Amino acid sequence: MLHSFNSARRLALAAILASVPVGPLMADLTQPEGPVILTVSGAIAQTNGDGAATFDLAMLEAMDPQSFETGTIWTEGTSTFTGVPLRRILEAVGAEGEVLTLRALNDYSVEMPSEAVDDNAPLIAYARDGAPLSRRDRGPLWVIYPYDSDAAYRNDTIYTRSVWQLDRIEVGG
């Protein structure tokens, strides 16, 4: 009797799981073929090895990049930044946490509530004015906001979250 109950329970669970839709961004992540420039770890549902999701530049470029023009307090004039909205990356890995820790190559880090991420900002930029961001130019990845488009993006909190040389995001809490 107990055996048949467990079998029925397993079949019911399998039917429920089979009916859960999986969106296009939740497809299996491919393996990076080039150098890894971003690692996302923590409370994520999709990984491509060792409990983390790793991305090379080609993988990010394939994620429907966006561009906007803005000035920054760190550069002269305006530039066109191209990259992937952070929200899109979080959706691709199935992020489930409330706090993001953004960490740079030099171990600078800042925490950011996941609710502060909107559809278009911040952008995880990999190019400026059509050229890849080098380490010397705050790359290979830079957390950029459209600072010129809204005064809400011009404050110390946002500037602190504008991590350059970003290489890791940990999803927690």
UniProtKB/TrEMBL annotation:
Residues annotated as domain Oxidoreductase molybdopterin-binding: 70-146
UniProt keywords, alphabetically: Signal
Signal sequence interval, chain numbering: 1-27
Pfam families for the chain: Oxidored_molyb
Protein name: Oxidoreductase molybdopterin-binding domain-containing protein
Species in which this protein is naturally found: Pseudoroseicyclus aestuarii
